Amino acid sequence: MRAIFCADEKWGIGKDNGLLFSLPKDMKFFRETTKGKVVVMGRKTLESFPGGQPLKGRVNIVLSSQEAKEGTVGAKSLDELFALLKTYPEDEVFVIGGESVYNALLPYCSEVYVTKVAADGKADTFVPNLDEEEAFVLAAEGEPVEDNGYTLRFCTYKNSAPKPF
Ligand SMILES: NC(=O)c1ccc[n+]([C@@H]2O[C@H](COP(=O)([O-])OP(=O)(O)OC[C@H]3O[C@@H](n4cnc5c(N)ncnc54)[C@H](OP(=O)(O)O)[C@@H]3O)[C@@H](O)[C@H]2O)c1
Questions:
Q1: Is residue 8 domain-resident?
Q2: Which of 17, 108, 112, 162 qualifies as a cystine partner to 157, CB 3.0-4.6 A?
């Protein structure tokens, strides 16, 4: 299982249940990386999408205590999620947020794709600083890329000891 997110220089990922920046190149990277795959998200992240609709061309698994929305597969607990995930190849599964879901699932991810934005987006939701997490190692760091007035780097972290599930 892998995770993907875009974070600012303080490891902030969101504000007012939306993204911090509008970044076409990062959106393209996200689309291409997760196309045809299984994406795992929290209920608030689903609600943050246009019209609250699931992402097309992907299996949308949504963690929530509520009933699953049409076009999504619901999981009411991590145990239920892990049972569901056993039915998909592990390398096809991407954790796509938000804060509560990254916090819960990053320890289980073998690899994390982080788009780092050199700016402070004044976030209200954050992910753990992977540079301070003992298990995570920065495996690849891309050259700076300009996107809508911001400077990005596409980075990959590897987890040296992903938790089994
Ligand atoms: N920068 C990025 O790459 C990125 C990516 C994704 C999201 N985001 C941002 O992240 C923010 C949202 O994060 P968030 O933490 O507030 O919300 P979230 O993680 O998207 O959703 C939280 C909800 O998910 C459900 N949930 C979480 N863990 C669960 C569990 N173990 N069992 C059952 N249900 C569970 C609960 O839904 P119920 O209340 O229905 O029970 C909970 O209220 C937004 O600003 C969004 O834009 C950023």
A1: yes
A2: 112
| Ligand 1 pocket, residue 115 CB under 6 Å | no
pTM of the model: 0.98
CA 125 – ligand 1 centroid, Å? 10
Residue 164 lies in a domain: no
By DSSP bridging, strand 125-126 and strand 93-95 are unpaired
Q: Can you say whether residue 110 is alpha, beta or left, with left for phi > 0 and alpha for psi between -120 and 50 degrees?
A: alpha
pLDDT of residue 99: 98
Confidence band for 92, pLDDT divided at 50, 70 and 90:
very high
**How many structural domains compose the chain?**
1
Q: Ligand 1 within 6 A of 121 CB?
A: no
Report pLDDT for 71: 98
Does a structural domain hold residue 106? Answer: yes
* Cβ of 18 less than 6 Å from ligand 1: yes
CB atoms within 10 A of CB 84: 17
Q: Is 46 in the pocket of ligand 1 (CB under 6 A)?
A: no
Q: How many CB atoms lie within 10 A of CB 63?
A: 22
**Ligand 1 proximity of 65 Cβ (cutoff 6 Å):** yes
Mean pLDDT of the 125-139 span: 98
For residue 98, report the distance from its CA to the centre of ligand 1, in Å: 4
The minimum-distance atom of ligand 1 relative to the CA of 4 is: 3
42 is written with which tokens? Answer: 């929290």
* Domain containing residue 148: 2-159
Residue 8 sits in a domain of what CATH number? 3.40.430.10
Confidence label for 87 from pLDDT (cuts 50, 70 and 90)? very high
